[in-house]
Design a protein that fits this description.
The chain is mainly β and 129 residues long. The chain has one domain: Sandwich (Jelly Rolls), CATH 2.60.120.40. The chain has no helices and nine strands. Strands 1-2-7-4-5 form a five-stranded antiparallel sheet, with no helix packed on it. Strands 3, 6, 8 and 9 form a four-stranded antiparallel sheet that branches. Its main location: secreted. GO terms for molecular function: hormone activity.
Length: 129
């Protein structure tokens, strides 16, 4: 489920971003630069000696919820840190037709529940048609 970002201090211009669905819908066809920065925390305290061993986290920005080649941006982070809080970012350019949407997906192989914390962001800027 998506949590509503805090309104205070939030910069939001243009009609494309739906905060309820977490989707950015392109008003016109063109190349858009997308960026997301997620602050992620473990929901359960780590047991003694238990780390992020062999786990990884994929964060993707996908067009029309299809995370296929040429229609998504992706980063993979190895979770080797013993920290319970870390930051992961994805940025890049995608082509969207008018009316297509892009949204953020998190593929969690960490084996424990994760929470996306406040202060995380998702943005889209039209570069050109």
């Amino acid at each position: 489920s998506l949590s509503q970002p805090e309104r205070e201090g939030m910069f939001h211009r243009g009609p494309g971003l739906n905060l309820t669905s977490g989707q950015y819908t392109a008003p016109i066809a063109g190349y858009y630069i997308f960026t997301t920065t997620l602050h992620i925390a473990r929901r359960e305290p780590r047991r003694k000696g238990q780390g992020w061993r062999q786990s990884r986290l994929r964060v993707l920005i996908c067009v029309q919820s299809r995370c296929q080649h040429n229609s998504h941006l992706e980063t993979v982070s190895r979770l080797e840190s013993s920290s319970d809080l870390f930051t992961i970012s994805v940025t890049g350019t995608l082509y969207l037709q008018a009316g297509q949407y892009a949204s953020v997906f998190v593929d969690n192989t960490a084996g424990s529940p994760l929470t996306v914390r406040s202060g995380s962001d998702f943005s889209a800027v039209l570069l050109g048609v």
